[in-house]
Amino acid sequence: MSTTAAKPHARAPLAAKARDAMESLNGEAGHLNIWLRTQANAPSQKPWFTHTGADAGGEMAQGKVAAGQMKASPHHWKWKEISPYLDKIAQIAETADVPPVEFAERQQFLLTNPGLGGRLQVASTIRCAVSIYNPGDLARAHLHTPNASRTILSEKGGYTNVEGERCVAARGDLILTPNGTWHDHGNDDDKPVVWIDTLDWPVLEFLDCIWLDEDVPAATLDPKANVPIQKTTLAAGYSNRAYGRGGLVPKFATHARGIGHAISPNVHYRGKDIRAALDGLKSEKGDAYEGVALDVVNPVNGAPLFATLGFGAQLLRPGEETLAKRETSNVVYVVLEGRGQTEIAGRTYDWEENDIFVVPNFLWRRHINKGTKDAVLYTMNDIPLLTKIAQYRAQGRRKDGSVEQLVS
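RE: above sequence
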């Protein structure tokens, strides 16, 4: 693929007289919910792979075709700024004396991207929220069409019961609640637990495929919270025993969880195992654009965890700097350990533990570990979705400034 920009072919504008006549007709026909075309499509994205400047990230369209258009911006949610609101929510909920599912449905706040006009999403395809559960809190059993995950930030993370498997969580754990799986949440520890929820909600919302079911079969009623929860039908640690050893898959298991499609049968990935895998690779050269990085995948077939969302982790050694990279995908980062910087489209963002930031599609990014210890970042992206529709591409900028096609 050439990186030489072709000179755009200039279109002749519609004659003023013809435009006026068309617009007049549009005024007349508006009540019929039609629009007589008066301009060509003006897509927001440039032919991105031919523009190698640091700020080449697409522009807003113009005129009628841009009506309602929004574009995600890079953004950084600093933990020291947003976390106090979790405490405030928890205090209100304790005073209200109701379980989380009855207190505004969840005790959480959702992250909103400033470029998306108030939509409850961090990127065009991804929603993120931060939840807090007080000691004793329970959320009733339910299932839904969006895929969801929980990234645990507190030292203890309560539990999530997924299809009868009670997953007791700790910091750094990744717990999946795939589409079509019954699940409920609770905190039986003596301190609040906090996690990040990541969902493909915007995709399902666009497709008008959002639905929720709370009529769980064979539910039990929790005597304290008075909400229906699942019976525990699998022994603790089932996911890890069945699927926690790479390349070894039990033949007797069906690998099906719930009524979802294209989902991983392993619903609990432990932070200590992810960290151990990263540590085991620290002596390797790693990737010039990502450091020591790994994907978290379906243990049965190596596919992404969800058809729409991918998950990973990367380690940056002290002083390590990556080269600049850009993709057609959106990437959300959570800082599990360390401190550093990420340059996005020419702007620098300083991050530390528990911070969250988003790199929207088409923008150049590079990471720098500014600390004296390892930095560990968890990632959530929409690469699986873009790959399925043949729209995933990636470029990297070499040390000499030239651009290479990583995925074309």
